[in-house]
Structure formats: structure tokens, C-alpha cells
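Chapter summary example.
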Amino acid sequence: MKPILALYGIQDRYEHQYPGYTHDHNLTVMRDGQIENYLHLERLTRRKNDNRLSHFIEEIIDSNLDLSESFELVNVNSFVGSSFISKTGRLRIDSNTPMRISTQAEDATAWFQRNQQDGFAPNTQIISHELAHIFSCLPFYGDFKENSLLVHFDGGASVSNFSAFQFKDNKLSIVEYHWDLSHLSKIFNDNALSFALMKANSNEHCSVPGKLMGYAAMGSTSSDMEKWLSENDLFKDIWQNQDAFYDAAQNWNWNGDLANNDDPFLMNVAAGLQTVFQKGIIKKLKELQQKTKTEYLYYTGGCALNICTNSAIIRSGFFKDVFIPPACNDSGLSLGAAAYVNWARGKKAKKHDAYLNNLQQQSTFTYTAETIKQVAADIIEGKVIGICNGKGEAGPRALGNRSIIARPDSKSIAQKVSMECKEREWFRPIAPVMLERNARKVISLGEIHHLSRFMLLDFRITEEYITPLSGIVHKNGTARIQTLFDKKDNPFLHDLLEYLDVQHGVIALINTSFNKRGNPIVEMSEDALNEARELNLDEIIINGKYQRL
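The structure predicted for these 549 residues follows.
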């Protein structure tokens, strides 16, 4: 069976310090449903949201991918275009058809020059951004369940920013696709008020969504606030002139300063923006479920990283179950493209965990009980520890293999980790990781949804656990829990949490991504060691081995 090489690497229109129209380039090699290689480019180049795959693809193939035999090629397009050409032209992909959305990939023309003497034209297809997004679920959940609604929602794909498909009778059909919900997604990536609240410039659109979501949790909204924001078109165009916001805010007897986001009114404004987004997508999903009578939801695209909305979707009860992949944003597009080609061949999708970033990185490692005891003792003492074990996580969330951990019951330790070590904004929350039995206990529910495995939901913490978890409970009383359902989810982290719980009564850990603000999550061991020193961590675990700094 020929391997599938899937790319998301459409060149941007310009080269800037920050990605513009495309971001988070990535590639996947899949054989018979099994992912052999996956690379999120930023992990290799150490440039956040890197969109320069064309610069590096030749070196990556020559040095890291076993493509000595012939292979099939699939390229993900975007509204920017469909063609791809590498640095020296050794790999070239050209579209044969106009850009459109379909339930099928389109045939394309390509050439790969292995060396000066050897080249060939691989069988090549181009897949729409929309289709690649929804198929990014398959590597993590297996084949779609019968009668499912498949939704993509992001800032912009190929010909839409929202698309919906139905999977029924083993067939895929288009339900709708459009830009009608663009005003909602733009709250997080192209709204002048949101950027002003985050003190961000227009080129930092990739960093605003997570910041705004955390900031919104500091405030509270009302129907009057949401109506006011909507009547003013969400203040989306006040880039050069903020007078419209100041004038309108006088109706609230506010005479503050947008440059000062330590302001309760501005926190309430952010909460209003979040709620407008949340209500908009909930309304759309309800309409689609009633129209299609679907039973399950597969939800992807960058908007699926909005954990507050994800939790609201679960609470709505519209669907029997909801599935969101860990790499639901553009970093998962090559995974979806490869999964689509495998599915179109009639092959079953194999289920994978989230730990797929594996370029040149040791994938297996061992650790001892003594290491677990030593790390636990240091955590109890208040030390801050970096972890770089095995393969890195796919997607933007650290899930224990590229994490910074610490004890969860200290606000001062949490502030040290977030504000001093990582240099993040004061309002950004720190997430916890815990065993399933403890997750159920702290949220007082009989069961916890499987999406928490990928840190995709938030939960309200019961009053009795606020103090023991004071470092990871956000101002609104919620926490973005990553749940370990059993040891195979992450053996090292599971054993550490088990030991801390049984021996010390510590029921969770701070778990935040192993990177400084503005940097990608570390991937390689040497990068992790350098970053740990820059972050002033106390120690680091590299492939199960303990090292003081």
C-alpha cells in the first residue's frame, strides 16, 4: 500500500513577522490508516504559527521522511489558493479545477524531483480546507458514526468560514456552506474591539482568541450588553478611530480607557462578545440538528477551541455525543487530508492518541518509581517542572508530554508559572490535569465527558475544592480540566498523579504548555532544555530522566 503524503502549506501572500492569510503549516505521512509521521512546522522552526512550509519541505523530506518508494500526494487548499511549489521547485502541485467545495477531492498535477536523475509524477489530489477540517476527527475517533452532522467553523477556509455535512448510509452530503457566520468568528480574529481589549495589533490575530476567551471569563454579561454590542456591529471597525466606542459607552456611564484592560466594564464587554459568539453557534447547531435529524456532532475548525462554547454544546443535549479532535485548528489539516484519502480508498481509520509530533524525537522512553517519588517530593516543595517526554502533542494544547507542572493549591505558584516564567498576561488562566476519579469529584458529576481528555471543556468547581485547587480555578469558578481516564492516556503523568493523590492527598497538577509567551511549544529535547533555562524552571524531565537546572 502506497503511503499518503498530505500537506497543508499554501504560501501566504506576504511574509511578515506574523502569519497573515495562512498559518500553522503541517504535514502528515499515513499508511493504511496509520500515521507514520506528523509535523506541525512551528515545532521544527521555532517560529510561532509558521507558514513557510515551502521553504522547508525539501529538507524535511530528504532528512526525515522515508519516501523512497512512490507515494500518493494530497494538498489542502485555502481561499488564498490551491497550488504549492517548494523552494527550488523539486515539489510542485498545480490545481486542475477552480476552487470549490465538494464531498470529494479534486485531481491535480504534481511533480517530485527526488534528485538530479530521478523524478516522478505522483498521483495527486487537492482537498478543500473545509473537508480536511472535518476529516481531522478520524485519526482520533475512528470512522464517523452513522447519521452524524460534520461541522467546520473558522476564520476562513476555501470558499466559506462555516460548512456542514451529513454522514448517513455511509455517504457524505453537503448541508450548507457560507460566510454568514463570519461576524462571529471575526470576534476572535478580526474585530477591532477585541484587539483593543487584548492590546494586540492586527497582525497578532492568531494569539487573540485564547487571550480573549480567558479575559471574558473575568466579567459577566447581560442581555442589555449583548444587545448593545450587536446594535453597534460589535465595534468591529474601530481600528483607526475608537471614538465610536467611547461615545457609545457613555450610555453605561463609563469614562474609562480601552488601553487599561484592568477594568470591570471592559471585562463585561469581553464576556458579552464571548456570549454573542456562543449563542450564535448554539442557535446554528440547533437549526442544523432539527433540519437533518442527526444524532452525533463532529465539530472542527479553529472556533472549536472555544472551550466555553464546547461545554455549552454538550449541555444543550442536541446530540447523543460530540467529537472534537485535539488538532481542530489548521494544525490538523494535513491529518484530515490524509484521513480523507484513506477513507476514500475504503480503508478503516485507525485511532491514535494526541501524541503525534514525532520528527526526529524519541517516541519511547522509560522511567522509574524513584523518579516519580522524586518529582512528587519536589512538587510538594513548590518546585516548577518541565516535561519533555516522547512524542509531542498534535494541536495547541499541552497534554502532559510538553507541559510545565506544579502543585495546584497555590495562587502564588500559579502566578509565578504564568506571569514570571511564561510572561503571560495577568488574566490568563492556568489549567489543571487530574485523574478521572478526582475530576468527577471536584465537579460533582457522575461522569466526565471524553472531550476533557484533550482539554476542550471547562467545568465549574464545587465550593469545597476551590481552596485545594486555588491555583487553577479561574475567577468565574471554572477550570479547563485535562482528564486522564486511564494509564494509557499518559503513563508517566498518570503514575505521578496516582502517587501524589495516594501519598500526599494532592488531587491535581497545574498543567500549562512548555513555552514562553510568543514561542511555540517545545518539541526537541535540546529545545526543551534551552527553554527551561530561559523560563527559570527548577528542573526538567526528558524522556523519563530527571535533571535539575
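To summarize the output: Residues 440 and 447 are 6 Å apart (CA to CA).
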